[in-house]
């Protein structure tokens, strides 16, 4: 048996995880993977029930699981809670608590959607890149002060801090990922300004000696942001720190056509964690219009990385491809002349194509 903890969370998280579980059950029946699902709460929903965005029981269940499938957290009604009760706190607690150091965000261009891209078709067509983002360190977790008063002036700070072992394990994940793909690694930093980036770059160059088959280059983050928009095809694997990866992965999702289609995997020490990169979209929650494909494709990554079930993963990816090629579109990617479908229809159509 393979135990999968499902955390729907808030907003559209509930609908899109339900879709992905349906797809996983169908694939399990075909490939005999022995999947077993258990639901747990996190985020605002958990706060409402238990007074905590991340109940200890949820974290413990995740630690013991073969993998975690996560929807999204957040919503207006919880925006004014103290920082440590807010829904996002659940995400950070899970990232830290499960040691989810390596966030993989693949960006693939769907030929069927290329006309809907805000970028020129000839520019994005054929792009296929993977962002490897460090997820449990850097400025997200470094020492910080909320507002403090110094000499009568209010100020606040956050600290970008990385140790050599922290850099080594994420950079290794970058090199190993590149080795399985087109063998090109771009490390993104701001070494012309930041000490932490200069250390980062040194570690990349040291480790490159162990990967003579992988071509390495370095880009400053400002230039990387521009290069993603002007020539995304130059990239295979990008490895970078927590905040640069956060920013660049939203930018890169535009290349793929819609954030609703973007999956992610967070590789951890205790277990690994799979979630769409879109948020909880409370404005469209419960209306059967959310695009479940990002979560369904995250479920495919779960099969690939946690269960080593590559064929099953590819079957899901092919079914999503086919659904788009057949002209079905959820509201976020809808264009005139196509067949408009809701969350449930999308799920059925994908299941039928497995
Ligand atoms: C992401 C999100 C989160 C992050 C937010 C919700 C805290 O933007 O997963 O990219 O910044 O890491
Ligand atoms: Mg983000």
Briefly summarize what is shown.
The protein is built from twelve helices and 14 strands. By secondary structure, it is an alpha/beta fold. A ten-stranded mixed beta sheet has the order 2-1-3-12-11-4-5-10-8-9, with helices on both faces.
Give structural attributes.
354 residues; alpha/beta; ten-stranded mixed beta sheet; two-stranded antiparallel ribbon; 14 strands; globular; binds 3-isopropylmalic acid; binds magnesium ion
Describe the structure.
The protein is 40% helix and 21% strand. It is of the alpha/beta class and 354 residues long. Helix 1 links the parallel strand 1 (2-9) and strand 2. Helix 1 crosses helix 10 (293-305). It binds 3-isopropylmalic acid and magnesium ion. The site of 3-isopropylmalic acid has 3 residues, from helix 4. 3-isopropylmalic acid is lined by residues 88, 91, 246.
